[in-house]
Specification:
The chain is an alpha+beta fold.
Length: about 90
């Protein structure tokens, strides 16, 4: 039975130990490092799986002669979300 690879997802914690969210850190040879932060584990898991699978597939079907794309732009464009500005005394 094949063992599943562990996804590169890490918890982000406040100084008091409270969980703030999740961070995906992906580093692959030949690709730039990708790091994104998420509030929900499901969102982080989905981004990690989609990004890793796109990196494994490699560049588009050009016969494998081109370099890998510098960023998985279709994934970033579809997973990007706007973050509302902070409200309160600091923001």
């Amino acid at each position: 039975m094949a063992r599943a690879k562990k996804l590169p997802i890490f918890g982000r914690y406040a100084p008091g130990g409270r969980l703030l969210g999740y961070q995906v850190k992906i580093r692959r040879k030949g690709w730039p490092a990708v790091a994104r932060q998420f509030d929900k584990m499901d969102d982080a898991r989905r981004f990690a799986i989609e990004t890793l699978s796109q990196m494994e597939k490699g560049p588009s079907s050009t016969g494998g002669k081109s370099k890998p794309s510098p960023w998985p732009m279709p994934l970033i464009a579809t997973t990007a979300r706007s973050v509302p500005p902070r409200s309160g005394p600091m923001g």
